[in-house]
Specification:
This protein is α/β, with parallel strands linked by helices and 321 residues long. It has one domain: 3-Layer(aba) Sandwich (Rossmann fold). Helices cover 40% and strands 17% of the residues. It has 10 helices and 11 strands. The strands form 2 sheets. The chain has a 9-stranded mixed sheet with strand order 4-3-5-7-6-8-9-10-11, with helices on both faces. Strands 1-2 form a two-stranded parallel sheet. Helix 2 crosses helix 7, helix 4 packs across helix 5 and helix 6 crosses helix 7. The longest helix is centred in the N-terminal third of the chain and has 28 residues. It starts with a helix and ends with a helix.
């Protein structure tokens, strides 16, 4: 009876009622943000029960483009493994050798975007192959046919870039090493070069984002949710769930420690990244650099929008390496 009286007094007091309503609203908002963050950073296989985005697995292979290739799995240290132990992590990759000349010009390592897989980069891979480069494509952990079920939008993926470079070093001798990244793959490359003690001869960054917070805001805007404070709350919970500080994951800052030649490719209609943001990355890069803007393209594979411009930019960049 006493509890009922207390509750009644609270309900009758406008300030207390307002506080309760605000607390309830904050609780609901945080639950929603937690759910969005979890689904945004986790994947589930098709036809399985779980919370996360559907995991896309490549159905096409290099053979469908007439290319010889081999499939391998490497550890997060970059060592070749044949039979992964239970619970072990691995990175699944395709290696496409050069077959029409005595020796390859070099190696191009290719890294896909969020929610993607290595099969989505087959057309650009074919172009690099035709230029005379050996190509290695990987599935980041949590994507494609690699182990795991989480993605960190380039944070942990930077370790996968380093692992792939360590694996490639065992085969390349003195040939040039080029890293190509699409969207999240670009962020992973910049972080890996800045912090992972790798020294590629050049990097190609297609559809890079400058700050994870800005990229999150773009996704939240697409979901028709209030951009702020939902974006900040989602980023906070995503970091808590996956063990990193998303507010500090800013490729534009990593760029300040990158000294190798760089080519940036940006779609002017990209709804998630502005031209000004990409120009900040360009400005911070310490080596020779070039930005090519595709006026008619959004956040999509730029080769499919303007093949001639894409091939021209790639050819010019590679000729200088």
């Amino acid at each position: 009876m006493a509890d009922w009286k207390v509750l009644r007094q609270i309900q009758q007091h406008p300030i207390r009622t307002g506080c309760l309503s605000l607390m309830s609203l904050l609780a609901v908002a945080n639950l929603l943000a937690y759910w969005v963050a979890y689904t945004f950073t986790h994947t589930v296989y098709p036809n399985t029960i779980g919370l996360g985005q559907p995991r896309r697995v490549n159905q096409t292979t290099p053979q469908d483009l007439g290319l010889r290739y081999s499939t391998h799995r490497i550890s997060v240290q970059g060592q070749l493994i044949t039979n992964p132990e239970a619970g072990a992590e691995w990175i699944d990759l395709w290696s496409i050798p050069v077959t029409d000349r005595p020796i390859a010009k070099g190696q191009v390592l290719m890294f896909h975007g969020k929610g993607g897989h290595k099969g989505q980069l087959l057309q650009p891979a074919l172009a690099f192959h035709q230029q005379g480069y050996e190509v290695i494509l990987i599935d980041f952990r949590g994507a494609g046919r690699s182990s795991g079920h989480t993605t960190t939008i380039g944070v942990r993926e930077a370790q996968d870039v380093v692992a792939t470079v360590n694996y490639a070093r065992q085969m390349r001798d003195r040939r040039s090493l080029i890293l190509y990244g699409l969207s999240m793959g670009s962020a992973a490359i910049l972080k890996a070069v800045a912090e992972g003690k790798i020294q590629p001869d050049g990097i190609i960054l297609e559809l890079p984002f400058a700050r994870l917070l800005d990229a999150t805001r773009g996704r939240i805007r697409d979901m028709k949710l209030p951009v702020s404070p939902v974006s900040e709350t989602v980023l906070f919970w995503g970091g808590v769930q996956n063990g990193f500080n998303g507010f500090l994951h800013n490729p534009e800052d990593y760029a300040k420690r990158v000294r190798c030649p760089a080519l940036l490719l940006h779609g002017q209609r990209d709804r998630w990244t502005t031209t000004a943001a990409v120009q900040r990355i360009l400005q911070n890069l310490q080596g020779s650099k070039q930005l090519v803007i595709f006026p008619q393209a959004g956040h999509e594979l730029l080769m499919g929008v303007d093949r001639a411009t894409w091939l021209g930019a790639i050819d010019q960049f590679l000729s200088k390496i």
